[in-house]
Design goal:
about 180 residues; 10-stranded mixed beta sheet; 3-stranded antiparallel beta sheet; 3 helices; 13 strands
Length: about 180
């Protein structure tokens, strides 16, 4: 009977150590980032918008998965974002202001984990408005995976910083709606 109690106690201790040793803290983003799709209004002709978007994707090495001009959709293939991500400093300011994606820090025992895989898809919807202009809605989905060791991994969603959206606005838009 004593062996069963010791085995249970040992199992409980192992579970507690695993939980405490493998349960990292996730920082909170202090900056303001859009949670809704970013929208740009453009008075350019539709063909010019399509050409500009595909050129912008090509210039930034983003492969296109789907183009449907009838429905007004462009979706990129899942692309790596390793060189264009950033974290925030303690004041909530991006460490790399030109980064397209901001990630929360993952901290365990006062040590930051580095992301091993960052990938995302850019979904762009182009629609005509009532006044003859076109609305370009940009909605990124960015996922990040941290692998601090062989057994543990954490996956979380990154936030767009608005830099890519500003490239679209500067090239194709008149004004930002959201």
């Amino acid at each position: 009977m004593k062996f069963v109690h010791k085995a249970r106690l040992l199992l409980l201790a192992c579970m507690l150590l695993t939980y405490c040793g493998c349960n990292p803290e996730k920082s909170v983003l202090k900056g303001t980032y859009a949670s809704n799709p970013f929208e740009v209004v453009s008075s350019l002709p539709a063909d010019t918008i399509w050409a500009g978007l595909t050129q912008l994707f090509a210039e930034n090495s983003i492969a296109i998965k789907k183009v449907d001009k009838e429905r007004g959709i462009i979706i990129s293939k899942a692309s790596g974002f390793d060189p264009v991500y950033s974290f925030e400093d303690t004041a909530g300011v991006l460490i790399s202001p030109k980064a397209w994606v901001v990630l929360k820090r993952i901290i365990l025992k006062h040590s930051n984990w580095d992301p091993k895989n960052i990938h995302g898809e850019w979904s762009i919807q182009i629609s005509d408005t009532a006044n003859g202009t076109r609305k370009i809605a940009i909605d990124p989905i960015v996922m990040c995976t941290f692998y601090p060791n062989f057994y543990t991994h954490i996956e979380m969603r990154g936030q767009s910083t608005g830099v890519f959206e500003a490239l679209v606005r500067n090239r194709l838009g008149n004004t930002a709606v959201k």
